[in-house]
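Narrative of accomplishments. A recurring question from our advisory board has been how the design workflow behaves on a single, concrete structure rather than in aggregate. To address it, we present the structure tokens for one chain from the evaluation set, followed by the sequence designed for it. No filtering or post-editing was applied between the two.
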């Protein structure tokens, strides 16, 4: 394994910037009593941009990369500002927000898994770190704005898409593919899974649906689909 491999600064900053833009677009879309002022939108964008990397490095017990360079915080804040400026235009194109979201979780997942592998973690913990890095910014965002955490509610395949990409990375690397190429493919896998989930409205089974099925099997009666 190439122990000298590091995440290129430009690539890490690109993930931070895309996260900042996506977070600001998300936050600027609130209406009514949930609407945020300019500072609030910038804070949310910055948190989304930096959150995944912070969680990744805390799990790996290393100094956060965002504290090792002067570029991270200005990049996240500047991207959030850009997201605010583009908000009125891009809010009309929901596909842009969804696409950015898929790309962000793909990049943070791939970078998190790659860094974990280089530091010597086994493959399962490495995938776990990658998934946490991928969804971490979104989790922090939802907590800050008081929304149900996106990775946990019905209709979301955030964590599943991230896990698919991270698993693809470790498998490709195990068969001899270099980390940079494996990470690129992992980003693509995550994006495809996430976008397909949105286009075809795919989701994991709802917990109460599983409970209803278990009860039905135990009582020997399967209720009509859609019935309560």
């Amino acid at each position: 394994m190439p122990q000298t491999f590091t995440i290129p600064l430009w690539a890490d900053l690109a993930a931070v910037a895309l996260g900042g833009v996506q977070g600001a677009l998300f936050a600027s879309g609130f209406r009514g009593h949930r609407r945020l002022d300019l500072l609030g939108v910038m804070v949310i964008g910055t948190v989304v941009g930096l959150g995944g990397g912070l969680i990744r490095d805390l799990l790996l017990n290393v100094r956060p990369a965002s504290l090792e360079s002067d570029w991270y915080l200005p990049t996240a804040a500047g991207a959030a500002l850009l997201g605010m400026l583009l908000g009125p235009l891009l809010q009309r194109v929901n596909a842009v927000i969804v696409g950015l979201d898929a790309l962000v979780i793909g990049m943070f997942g791939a970078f998190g898994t790659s860094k974990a592998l280089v530091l010597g973690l086994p493959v399962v913990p490495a995938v776990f770190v990658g998934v946490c890095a991928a969804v971490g910014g979104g989790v922090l965002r939802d907590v800050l704005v008081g929304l149900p955490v996106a990775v946990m509610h019905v209709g979301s395949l955030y964590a599943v898409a991230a896990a698919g990409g991270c698993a693809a990375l470790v498998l490709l690397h195990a068969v001899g593919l270099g980390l940079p190429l494996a990470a690129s493919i992992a980003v693509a896998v995550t994006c495809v899974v996430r976008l397909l989930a949105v286009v075809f409205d795919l989701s994991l089974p709802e917990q109460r649906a599983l409970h209803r099925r278990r009860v039905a099997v135990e009582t020997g009666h399967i209720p009509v689909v859609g019935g309560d």
